[in-house]
Amino acid sequence: MVKRVAIIGAGVSGLTSIKGCLEEGLEPSCFERSDDIGGLWKFTVSVETTGHGMTKVYKSVVTNITKEMSCYSDFPFPENFPNYMKHTLVMEYLHSYAKHFDLLKYIHLKTTVCSVTKRQDFTTTGQWDVVTDMEGKRDTAVFDAVMICTGHYLNPHLPLESFPGESTITEIPRLL
Questions:
Q1: Which spans in the chain are helix H?
Q2: pTM assigned to the model
Q3: What CATH number is given for 4-56+88-168 in this structure?
């Protein structure tokens, strides 16, 4: 029986996790809450927060790592891409990667993972219940493994407690 793997997030790590599962003979199902792959590399015009603490790139973002150091080992960036790329080229690359390795059919877009819990028989099966919501429709599925690929930029960390008096500042002083 083929082991089923839930992958949460279709960004850089989620895509390569799908591919890795397929190479190992596993059955991946990737859940992405937005309407596209790419994770934080997907630029959106909206100035509002995304509502889930999701961090996104801004319009002028350019990578600070060369393309040779940031590509997948089995899928280099195209030769004509500059060494340091705008986020649009990174997204183009991620779409090319997903298409090249036929990963899109394993991705459920606009699907939020609501909960991941151990099944009652977890000690013997090692299985998980994964509850998802796709546009108001709830579903529960059983998986043998779960990979969390949401990245460490999902929620901003603001260590405001390290700045005594921060909450009383009403105006930022101008520096000369």
A1: 12-23, 67-70, 87-100, 122-125
A2: 0.82
A3: 3.50.50.60
